[in-house]
Amino acid sequence: MSSLTEKDRPIVQLLLSTGTCPRCILRFCCVGSQMLYRHPHQDLMRDLQEFLRNNQEKEDTGCLDAAHPPCKRIRLEHSEGGPEELNHNGAIPQMPSVDNGTATMESSAAKVCNVCLGILQEFCEADFVKKVCQKVNSADYQFTSFVFSVSLPPQLSVRERAAWLVVKQEMRNLGLSLAKDDIVQLKEAYKWIIHPQLSEELGVPADGKSLFEVSVVFAHPETDEECHFLATACPDCFKPAKNKQSVFTRMAVIKALERIKEEDFLKHFPCPPGSPKNPCDALEIQCNNGAVFVAGRYNKYSRNLPQTPWIIDGERKLESSVEELISEHLMAAFKADSFNFSSSGREDVDVRTLGNGRPFAVELVNPRRIRFTAEEMKRLQQAINDSSDKIQVRDLQLVTRSAIGRMKEGEEEKTKTYSALIWTDEAIQREDIAFLDDIKELKLEQKTPLRVLHRRPLAVRGRLIHSMQGEYLDEHHFRLRLRSQAGTYIKEFVHGDFGRTKPNIGSLLKRTADILELDVESVDVDWPPTLDD
């Protein structure tokens, strides 16, 4: 093996004698050749056996993979002393002679690895890869690449530490040094092996930036309690969390292993670790597609339709909403698990949105289908519009996550145009409302309205009415068109909200005024881009 040299011999001999698999041995020898890990398990075992039988003192003794030089090496350092021989828990076993190496190899080949608990053994084989791919294909996702993630039992970190301490002690005895950071990480080695197999079986490349994720969750119930001694040694590392079933998370265990003293570790955990009876279980094989974002503008023509589901004290007040009328079609078309709806502001249930409509965006979570042509998006828009006379959508299109930020940028600096039907208690003439047309940049102070105080913090907000234009209808009614700063409470500007909005139409007219109807006529946000019909 060109990637193994004479200084690796004691590591190979030692780890084989303790029940470590060939691929983990390569990891501890700091072999960075990806191709070497992909060799069949039995071939690697035979190669290691041959390596041990070879008594040449040259560091290069042949080539399994000359095209991929190792990326990590053991550091040669003069031993400057260190801990005494490991105690009875961590005693280094007597290493087998080369003569009985075959028996050792055959015994090791039949065992579950004492370090990776079988991850780099049966879970690298073609049968498991096919099982993963069957799960992916049956989920019916659209994807052009994939990223593979793996969740490992936290006790693997404990076992790796124990194996490293044994190897480190042996290397120190030989005047050599092995840094823990030089060891190839288990996840890294596993992905080296599994990526090309998955890629070939799925017919698409592995890509670390892909939005389609294939994940495997491993567990090993037989050794679950092996982390528990760390909670006694480092209690501060293990804090309960609402979204975690156990305090023994991988990160908590790694943090504790960084803190615990070497001698304390050796007192509580066997070094080398023992061989388990059973390999890990693949608890879950999951697929997940990154979210897809759809944007557009909607018009709302009903005065009995909320923007989002109207639920009070767990009871639904109205049967539908703008959000649902739009999103139910998107959910079905994209085959998504769930959605998140957002918009540039919102209107009350009894307020219509006219003109070019209000910009909105829908995040579709874990969609199975992700590719739509412009023509397909037009048909989807038409299906939404045909389904209800309460709303209409336009400019429906796929957008990026970052583009949605434009809908919210400077939201309060944007302007909106409204049309309000106003009633007055005292009779009015045309000249009584004429002065409203001359008012420009009227500054308001609005306390949080009483009607929204249950869901908004109490505050006084400064707002601007940029311009107004009155249209006389009769002695008690007129229509007021106004352009205001976004975020202005228009209803409260009309009736005053018991003096909580100052000034207001009532105070300006010096009589009681109330609003009967309100329409949003434009939302001046230049997004999303207008599409040709």
Automatic annotation (TrEMBL):
Major subcellular location class: cytoplasm
Enzyme Commission (EC) number: 5.4.99.25
SUPFAM superfamilies: Pseudouridine synthase
Record keywords, A-Z: Coiled coil, Cytoplasm, Isomerase, Metal-binding, Mitochondrion, Nucleus, tRNA processing, Zinc
Catalytic activity field: uridine(55) in tRNA = pseudouridine(55) in tRNA; uridine(54) in tRNA = pseudouridine(54) in tRNA
GO-annotated molecular function: metal ion binding; RNA binding; tRNA pseudouridine(55) synthase activity
Keyword Lyase: no
GO biological process annotation, one example: tRNA pseudouridine synthesis
All residue ranges annotated as the Pus10 N-terminal eukaryotes domain in the record: 113-287
Domain Pus10-like C-terminal residue range list: 293-524
Record's subcellular location: Cytoplasm; Mitochondrion; Nucleus
Pfam family, one: Pus10_N_euk
Entry's Gene Ontology cellular component terms: mitochondrion; nucleus
EC class name: isomerase
Family: Belongs to the pseudouridine synthase Pus10 family.
NCBIfam families: pseudo_Pus10arc
Protein name per its UniProtKB record: tRNA pseudouridine synthase Pus10
Protein species of origin: Climacteris rufus
